[in-house]
Amino acid sequence: MSKMSWIKDGYKKAADAVVRKIENPAKGGGGHFPTLEGHAAAQRHAEQVLETHGALREKMNKLKKEFKIYRWSPDHPHQKPFLQSYFVDLSKCGPMVLDVLQKIKGEEDSSLSYRRSCREGICGSCAMNIDGTNTVACLKPIDADTSIPTVITPLPHMYVIKDLVVDLTNFYQQYKSIEPWLKTKKPPPDGREYRQSIAERKRLDGLYECILCACCSTSCPSYWWNPEQFHGPAALLHAYRWITDSRDDFTEERLQALTEDETRLYRCRTIKNCTATCPKSLNPANAINKMKTKHLLSQPVEKTEDQNGRAFGES
After folding, report:
1. Alpha carbon distances (Å) from 281 to 31, 89, 187, 275
2. Can you give the pLDDT of all 315 residues of the chain as single tens digits?
């Protein structure tokens, strides 16, 4: 055997010994490498490799985070929903929860279903419940604490279509029912456009920014209890957006449509879950209270007292 072959063979045996020791530390015990007996320097190098590899593996493990994701498929209707764990290397992933979902779907499990579109917090498609809070995944940063798993479930109290996708049919029907468009009784004075002052336009701030993600409505207990009757924070926020718009001529009609049945508006108990969870930092509860005030101030005192009694369950 040539000297070069002997060296290559020695290194191969040393490497094999290191790998075996890493894979099963119980064998070969306490940093002893029989192949390297009589070669003190090589023995030290092997031990250093073992220690370095162990340290690197520990650091790499710290960069891996567990994500528990709600799974259910209509293809297996008799199988109960469950949380499936995925371990994601955060060093090879973007900073947002949506990046994690994209990575899992693209590299680990293509069957995972969820909605997404803009990735910029504009479309509201990727709304879901992350660690107990409704939000949009594209604006939710990953929790850097790798010792605690992140739990991702669908929006609560909604019918699940598959995995993180929920049925928003009723939600959009309620939005449609408030007629979310400008309604006028006369053409604009100059025949071109309806003008607003700066102050009139400013009244729309905090209202028009709603992206219809449904985070607020699905966090509202009143909406959980009465989703067919109570319109929910999102639809009512948009209703107030048009009621307070100086260009709209149907303020009274809009209020009347919402208050003909007190459950549409007055089911709100001002719990303010909607305000706490809104990913755009809007305040639907405040808009609903202003709408109630506007309606009550337009009513005779006797009717107002009767309306308050029914709204708060008094006999």
Report:
1. 57, 31, 35, 7
2. 555 555 456 545 555 554 555 455 444 444 566 666 766 766 776 676 677 666 656 666 668 999 999 999 999 989 999 999 999 999 899 999 999 999 999 999 999 999 999 998 999 999 999 999 999 999 999 998 889 999 999 999 999 999 999 999 999 999 999 999 999 999 998 888 999 999 999 999 999 999 999 999 999 999 999 999 999 999 999 999 999 999 999 999 999 999 988 889 999 999 999 999 999 999 999 999 999 999 888 776 555 555 555 554 443
Which residue, chain included where needed, has tokens 């509860």? 285
Q: Supply the DSSP string of 39-108, one letter for each residue.
A: -HHHHHHHHHHHHHHHHHHHHHHHHEEEEEEEE--TTSTTSPPEEEEEEEEGGGS-SBHHHHHHHIIIII
CA–CA gap between residue 281 and residue 267 (Å, rounded): 23
C-alpha 31 chain-centroid distance? 48
Residue type, 63: L
Nearest CA-CA partner of 235 in 212, 269, 267: 212
Q: Is the pTM of this model over 0.85?
A: no
The tokens for 298 are 């337009």
Q: Tokens 């419940």 correspond to what residue?
A: 129
- What percentage of the chain's residues is helix, strand, coil (to nearest 5)? 45, 10, 45
Asked if residues 87 and 80 have their Cβ atoms less than 8 Å apart, the reply is: no
